[in-house]
Amino acid sequence: MKIAIQGIAGAFHEEAARLRFSHEPIEIVPCLTFRELAAAVASGLADKGIMAIENTISGTIQHNLELIREQQLWISDEVIMRIRQHLGGVPGSSLQSIRKVYSHYMALNQCRPFFEAYPEVELIESEDTALSIRDVAIAGSTEMAAIGSALAIARNGLIVLGKEIEASKQNYTRFLILDRLPQTPTACNKASISLVLKSDPEAFTQAMALLHNWNIHLAKIESMTIPGQPWHYRYYLDLRSESEGQLAELLADIESLAVSIQLLGKYTAHTL
Ligand SMILES: O=C(O)C(=O)C[C@]1(C(=O)O)C=C[C@@H](O)C=C1
């Protein structure tokens, strides 16, 4: 099975894919951007995709919710993985010699407090952690370092300058498994939807009351601006319920309040 990931081999996406599909042979399809990843699944180039959606330190990647909706992908599962960020430099480098540190922006955001003690270090965004580590190894400069996994650092012959430098040990990333077509899960207790409500000021309160009526738990909500419609929002909701029937009833009820509602996936919730 071909799995599209964001990043090259050695990126956290690869680790998460191997964790989720540990019982079957998989072929990794590397994609440099999240947009490329979504397109690989939508076009059938990959059978499935795995996409980071939120991290417990650096937050939600809202843009990925938009990509899933726009490309009409289906969320069929989620994976939660502990992320340990290490700082890697070439042999001979040290925390005193480095001036530029490269990584994926989500990884940089997980580690910013560590660098407060090193004001001479510039943090620079790159496509992914593994690529940054490879590029530092190729450049061979003691002024450069990169943030990523212990595995990628070792594979590229770098040394660890900082171990587990994330701002909190409670550092988890939640990844979504994406399919081209809707799947019918044997069991599920979570649904993700995109919702635009009518411009009635009461609509949001009424929608929340419906959740309460159907005993549905709101696990997560994101609101995003809609280009061309100032002060009007699209909501992305993760809903939890032990009853699939109640979820279906809720979606039918909410339709009367909505301009648009889209089911993005149904799956089983994972917890720590
Ligand atoms: O650059 C990588 O290694 C990735 O897989 C990307 C990514 C992300 O998108 O959040 C994955 C997990 C970590 O939170 C940091 C970076």
UniProtKB/TrEMBL annotation:
<keyword id="KW-0584">Phenylalanine biosynthesis</keyword>
<dbReference type="GO" id="GO:0004664">
    <property type="term" value="F:prephenate dehydratase activity"/>
</dbReference>
<dbReference type="GO" id="GO:0005737">
    <property type="term" value="C:cytoplasm"/>
</dbReference>
<dbReference type="InterPro" id="IPR002912">
    <property type="entry name" value="ACT_dom"/>
</dbReference>
<dbReference type="InterPro" id="IPR045865">
    <property type="entry name" value="ACT-like_dom_sf"/>
</dbReference>
<dbReference type="InterPro" id="IPR001086">
    <property type="entry name" value="Preph_deHydtase"/>
</dbReference>
<dbReference type="GO" id="GO:0009094">
    <property type="term" value="P:L-phenylalanine biosynthetic process"/>
</dbReference>
<dbReference type="Pfam" id="PF00800">
    <property type="entry name" value="PDT"/>
</dbReference>
<feature type="domain" description="ACT">
    <location>
        <begin position="192"/>
        <end position="268"/>
    </location>
</feature>
<comment type="pathway">
    <text>Amino-acid biosynthesis; L-phenylalanine biosynthesis; phenylpyruvate from prephenate: step 1/1.</text>
</comment>
<keyword id="KW-0057">Aromatic amino acid biosynthesis</keyword>
<keyword id="KW-0456">Lyase</keyword>
<keyword id="KW-0028">Amino-acid biosynthesis</keyword>
<feature type="domain" description="Prephenate dehydratase">
    <location>
        <begin position="2"/>
        <end position="180"/>
    </location>
</feature>
<protein>
    <recommendedName>
        <fullName>prephenate dehydratase</fullName>
        <ecNumber>4.2.1.51</ecNumber>
    </recommendedName>
</protein>
